[in-house]
Design brief:
With 331 residues, this protein is an alpha/beta fold. It is built from 16 helices and 4 strands. The chain is globular and about 65 Å long.
Length: 331
């Protein structure tokens, strides 16, 4: 039972596997209670030293995610908020969205790309998981060819954020879920690869055109120079992040919501970068820190003074050899 719980950490996947195994309702309920307890225990515990060091190579992403999270939560609005990350591919937009989402609470995500037609958005993932309080849905926009369609899409998002209601539709079959499930989202995160028709400029113009859009949308241009360190960070992501990105994103989300942990991680990252700078370019490091030699070095360990050796067996051999030579010369 414990191994089953550890393997299937998501409630949704747990339900699917339980259905395939023909578990009884009370067994499924028991597994859900175990999973809820595990999430609670994991949520209140502190990050270990090993987990903190695993996050160090990705500190630029964590710092940007922390700033965007603060911007999202501090947005002055009495209804839901939608934050759209615009930019080219390889900018870790989806990663940042999932980190922010995991720091807020339970969330649903739709991985991969999907087409948005007319004003039909696909929120069936969140609806099926039964998340009612905090909804975070991630979507990738490939292309919207007509301005009127884009306007309807933005309006649909606005209606969903305010709770006015839009029928939840299945992403694959395009059919309405039974009983026409409707829900209000508190947060909606969207990552968008820019195209000819939909990009930061067109979205910015559209959102600024109406006050109700400005109150409910936050538009971020990830291609801006202030986010340039994300690409370098992405290229050096460690194996732990790539092989177990769901767990690493959860750790990152746990870190960015704690200011003390972020301060400690930034200090550790600074120390790590200084060590790398010393090893890779010691001349430049000493030039940039000329006062480093003015400090008195005091070893941490206490060693007993060693009596200096005045002569060695080799020296004695040399002296004897010279004495013998002198004696022979004297004779």
């Amino acid at each position: 039972m414990y191994r089953f719980k550890q393997k299937f950490t998501l409630i949704n996947s747990l339900k699917q596997v339980a259905a395939k195994q023909n578990f009884k309702p009370h067994q499924v309920k028991f597994l859900q209670e175990l999973e809820a307890q595990r999430k609670y225990e994991e949520g209140i515990r502190d990050l270990t030293t090993d987990e903190k060091h695993q996050l160090l190579p990705n500190m630029p992403i964590l710092n940007h995610a922390k700033d965007l999270r603060n911007q999202l939560l501090s947005h002055d609005n009495n209804s839901g908020v939608c934050m759209i990350l615009c930019g080219g591919s390889g900018r870790c937009k989806s990663t940042i969205n999932r980190i922010i989402a995991s720091s807020i609470g339970e969330y649903a995500t739709w991985p991969g790309s999907q087409w948005i037609q007319k004003d039909n958005l696909k929120f069936d993932t969140a609806a099926r998981q039964g998340i009612n309080t905090i909804i975070v849905e991630e979507m990738h926009w490939i292309d919207i060819q007509h301005r009127i369609t884009l306007d309807k899409t933005i309006n649909s998002i606005k209606e969903q954020l305010t709770g006015a209601g839009m029928d939840v539709r299945l992403a694959k079959t395009k059919t309405a879920i039974q009983n026409d499930i409707k829900f209000k989202m508190d947060f909606l995160l969207i990552s968008m690869n820019e195209t000819e028709y939909v990009n930061y400029k067109t979205l910015c113009h559209l959102i600024r055109s109406k006050p109700e859009y400005k109150r409910r949308f936050i538009l971020i241009n990830i291609d801006d120079d202030k986010y340039s360190d994300i690409v370098e960070c992405r290229n050096r992501q460690n194996e732990n992040w790539q092989s177990n990105y769901i767990h690493m994103e959860w750790l990152a989300g746990k870190a960015i919501k704690n200011p003390d942990v972020m301060a400690e991680l930034n200090q550790l990252d600074l120390e790590r970068s200084l060590r790398e700078e010393k090893v890779q370019n010691p001349v430049a490091f000493f030039d940039a820190n000329p006062d480093i030699f003015n400090c008195d070095y005091e070893p941490d360990c206490n060693f007993e003074p060693i009596t200096p050796v005045t002569s060695t067996p080799n020296d004695e051999v040399i002296e004897m050899t010279e004495r013998e030579v002198n004696e022979e010369m004297f004779i």
